[in-house]
Each structure stands twice: as structure tokens, then as C-alpha cells.
Amino acid sequence: xxxxxxxxxxxxxxxxxxxxxLTTTAIPAAPVRVERADCYLLREHNEYRKKVAMGLVDRxxxxxxxxxxxxxxxxxxxxxEWAINCDFKHERPAKYGENLYFSTNENGDATRAWFxxxxxxxxxxLKSGGFLHYTQMVWADTTRLGCVKQFCSKLxxxxxxxxxxxxxxxxxxxxxxxxxxxxxxxxTT
Length: 189
Description:
Residues 1-19 form the signal peptide. The protein has helices at 2-10, 15-18, 37-53, 73-83, 110-115, 132-137, and strands at 22-25, 32-35, 70-71, 97-103, 144-157, 160-173. The chain is of the alpha+beta class. It has two domains: 2-34, no CATH class; 36-173, CATH 3.40.33.10. The longest helix has 17 residues, at 37-53.
């Protein structure tokens, strides 16, 4: 019983105690600290936003008004409530901005896939296109983010069932991707 209690204690996320984004996992005689998925997703969003703000992204101008996102637990709960359905489709009606991604690899990189759409986007007022994940990530008026990575034994993607998939859902507030608006202000103008 003592060993079980010790292991459970080691599995308590440290963010509940110390505000950290690290979790201690119990491996006999060697607890390992790993970054939680939600913290990773927030950090990655902010690193990409910083690159855009600094003008370090090909074909994208430096941003004048692009700050970091803050974690929002209400958005994370909304993301979780949508993700547990294991249905790869956008929530309608949309209260928040939303990005979706799935992979059969637990280490699939949602933020990288979304951000890579910058190569499809010609900066200017928004039109429809295959870059809306990217523009939501860098929408300047968006200030809060909540995400979840959900394991789905059976994920629905249209008429297809994908076994053993990981679904990432991020919710953004205020939402972005408004037609005829730019995602951020160009620092050079």
C-alpha cells in the first residue's frame, strides 16, 4: 500500500502545486519530469508568434501587434468537451476559433503542421484558403488559448474510421480568421 501511495504522489501534476508545466511520472527508482501537452502547445504557439513578430518567417512581414497568448482553462475545457467525441470536424456553431489535427503517432506535431501553412498565405486581407490554421495561430486580436490532446481508439474523419489516433483541439478567444481582415499589422507600414 505504501508503494502505491508513493507512486500516486509522484504522478500528481506539479502545476497543481507549483504552477509548473512539468509533470512527474512514476518510473520505479527514477521519476522523470516531462512537459505536459497543454504547456507544450501554448509554448509552441508563442514561439511561432514571436518568430512572426520578429519577421523571421519566409514570405511573412514582421508583426507590429502580435503578443503572446495566455492559457485559458475555460477554453481548454471546451476543447476537451469537443475532443472526447473523437470526431475530426469543426464544432458548429463556432463560439471560439478552433484548430484541429490528428495523427496515429502520439508525437504528431499539430502546431508545426498548422504553422507550416504560412507558405500558402500571401499576407493581406484574409480570403478563404488552405492556410486558416496558420492565420488563426497568428491572429493578433486573439489573446487566449486552450488545447487538449485526446487519445481516440476510433477517430471519425468523414466516413473513415481511424484506429488509435491522437486528436489535438485548440480553441482561441477572441476568435480570428475574419474575412477581409489581416491577421496582424505589418510592422513595415
